[in-house]
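anyone seen this seq b4? input:
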Amino acid sequence: MDLRRQLMEGRTAIPRVGSVAQVARTQLPFVVLGDNGAEVEPVSLYLRELVLGDCSPLTCRSYAQGLLRWFRLLWVLEVGWERATESDVAVMVAWLRTAPNPQRERSAVSPAAGSVNLVTGKPALGPGYAKRTINHALSVVSGFYEYHGHYGRGPVVNPVPSSAERRRALSHLSPLEPKPVVGRARLRQKVPARPPRAIPDERWDELFAAMGCERDRALLEFSVSSGARAAELLGVCPEEVDWAGRQVYVISKGTRRREPVPASPQAFIHLARYLDECGPRRLGEPVWRTRRGPDRPLSYWALRRILQRADDLLGANWSWHDMRHTACARMASSPELTLPEVQAIMRHASIQTTSRYLAVRVEEIFDKLTQHYNLPRPDTRYPAGYAADDITAVFGAGGAR
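predicted toks r here
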């Protein structure tokens, strides 16, 4: 019991034993290895089921990482996975709420947790695990035990609590209907709704000026004019650039279909300048390449580093997904585009997601607020015929002014 209490209070760390390994298997891209290097077979069975259900390899890797974290806890507690209970899940949640997140230790200098960046208005990430990460960990463990329970393996009752009210509310809900507000299941974290974080025009000009080459300017312009995700843009090949139609073809994240995405003329101008500098690209190879070292496709981490260098210069903390938010906010506020048209361009599954960008942001009404604050106080006037002494007696000394 002392060990459980120490874990829940964050006074004991969970040893980082085991690993997630990528394997060359047709229906199983990732496996979880134990501290002895052996494959954890119950996890592999569940991950194979996910792949057969047509989930992406990145989803498989994410679930493998979550289950590795869960099994590390079980190994410390010396509890078999088939005997896990809700109390073990509670230990995991309490530990995640207090333990430091290794991903936050990548930067030597990081702002104080919760502090707001004055350039972007975005708060800095805390040193621990985010509430969304904790809820994702609960979903991973719940799905793992639901799968094994279907085949009669594992505990009789799923150790992760569920909300019966939520199941009833969402069982027959139409995609066009708003999701009802229901109570959270036990151990689930309360996640506040995050408003879209579009970049104001003056901040956008500063960010664009901080780009050091035509490749980076083209990437930034494509992101903010098309709304394409960073990973989608990185996979664009020369044959997928429609110069006449001013659009590029990307593999959409949601449907995983190759779909056309329109972009601005300025984006194609910067792309043409970039190709003039580096030369034409071979068919079948990504357009975006590294500029230093051997010629190779630009990775997602190298793409993040491009924006991080500009953020360090400007004192900001913009991300590539902020470009997608900015693109949608600009389109939604344009009188030339209807909301269903913006939904089609952004490839949102629900128009409710697109409608979130119709909300008024404080940055947009700053000038109006300044005028409002500078307005003189209106004078209180009374019709002629009322004596000043009578007004003072009724409304006080301030009423006679």
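Residues 2-103+115-164 form one domain. The mean pLDDT is 88. kinda curious what u guys think
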